[in-house]
Amino acid sequence: MSQQTAIASSRSQDVSQSEPLMPLSLPILIGITGMVLFVVSQMLVVTGLAIWAIGGYFHLHLIGFSILIALASIPVGLASWKVLIMAIAAERDPANN
User: Fold this and answer.
1) By the number of CB atoms within 10 A of the CB, which of 11, 16, 23, 69 ranks highest?
2) Using a CB cutoff of 8 Å and minimum separation of 24, what contacts does 85-94 make?
3) SS3 helix, strand, coil % of the chain, rounded to 5?
4) Residue 22: φ, ψ to 5°
């Protein structure tokens, strides 16, 4: 059996033997909230410091800072959404509890 065939068969077994997700309960919701708040707050602090540093370096005024904030809010918003989705998946996975 080739290596690719072995990998493909092990992946199909993993998917077929997956356990159902755990129901949402208070401890799981607390874990999701804590994880999301921690990671998203770190992303917002780094983004805010980057905007402040770039705006200060280029001596930007209100309009310049507004444009930087608008440009930075798109990837930070998408990354925050992805963190939320990943936190929900991680906390509801039976292997993690």
Assistant:
1) 69
2) 87/31, 87/32, 87/35, 87/36, 87/39, 88/32, 90/35, 91/22, 91/28, 91/31, 91/32, 91/35, 92/21, 92/22, 92/24, 92/28, 93/21, 93/22, 94/19, 94/20, 94/21, 94/22
3) 80, 0, 20
4) -75, 145
Query: For the stretch 49-80, what's the b/e string if a residue is b when 16 or more beta carbons lie within 10 angstroms of its beta carbon?
Result: eebeeebeeeeeeeeeeeebeeebeeebeeeb
- Torsional sign, CA 29, 33, 39, 43: positive
Backbone angles phi, psi at 44, to 5 degrees: -70, -40
Q: What is the pLDDT of residues 42-82, one digit of tens each?
A: 999 999 999 999 999 999 999 999 999 999 999 999 999 99
Report pTM.
0.75
